[in-house]
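Case 226 in the screening queue. Each case pairs one protein sequence with one candidate compound; here the compound is adenosine-5'-diphosphate. For every case the pipeline is the same: read the inputs, emit a complex structure as tokens, and attach any notable structural observations.

Predict complex for case 226.
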Amino acid sequence: KGHIDLRDIRVSFTQNGAALDAVRGVTLDVKPGEFVSVVGPSGCGKSTLLNIVAGFLKPSAGEARVDGLPISGPGADRGVVFQQYSLFPWLKVRENVEFGLKMQGMGRAERESRARTLLGLAGLLSFENHYPDQLSGGMKQRVGIVRALATGPQVLLMDEPFGALDAQTRVVMQEILTNMWQQLRLSVLFITHDIEESIFLSDKVYVMTARPGRIKAEIPIPLPRP
Ligand code: ADP
Ligand code: ADP
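Case 226 output:
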């Protein structure tokens, strides 16, 4: 479960009447339980690819599948984390995490137990009753990750999740994310422009070039993990 498969993806836009390809001929895959990064300069199409897997954007050509099924829209099998933490400021930390579960109609006790388990993994259990405003940037982003994981997705999609954080916090976040990923064994597609970050985190790194965005290299990272 959690196999992402993009084949020969092209995304075209019309700009000033001219057709432009944002990405062209992109083929990539994330095997179940794998941590895969996509790196490349700004504008090379990283977010475009992530939005296709998330189901927010349809490719102009090519095939996009998760577990063999064509992606037709967003789904609970795929959690998404963006650079900007989009927490509800009027809800406490645990209420933020439980929100999606509540929408699914899950009972209070089960919601609470699931949220507390995940908050514990992220080292945030003692902050469950805080409001987002009372947390640091790194902590807010950890809540964002926990919230994306709450519904039990097989795939976690992350678009520059640590882009707004200072260097020291980033390193801490990378370690926390690695720990969570190892415990939860889900597939991760991680977008970053930071090659060092991608190497530290990933089993495999795709390097893209811009205009139009293409995969330039696919690099397995055979080193033992921290
Ligand atoms: P990054 O993903 O590196 O933060 P942005 O999302 O800001 O980069 O987008 C990179 C470039 O793509 C920018 O020049 C921006 O103007 C352009 N862009 C992004 N989204 C759109 C859009 N919906 N329409 C037109 N141009 C866009
Ligand atoms: P990255 O995430 O690598 O910064 P993006 O996926 O945001 O790149 O953008 C890839 C390219 O597609 C950019 O050149 C951007 O200008 C273009 N682009 C993205 N969205 C749109 C859009 N809606 N209309 C026109 N161009 C877009």
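Case 226 observations:
- The longest helix spans residues 167-184.
- The chain has a mean pLDDT of 94.
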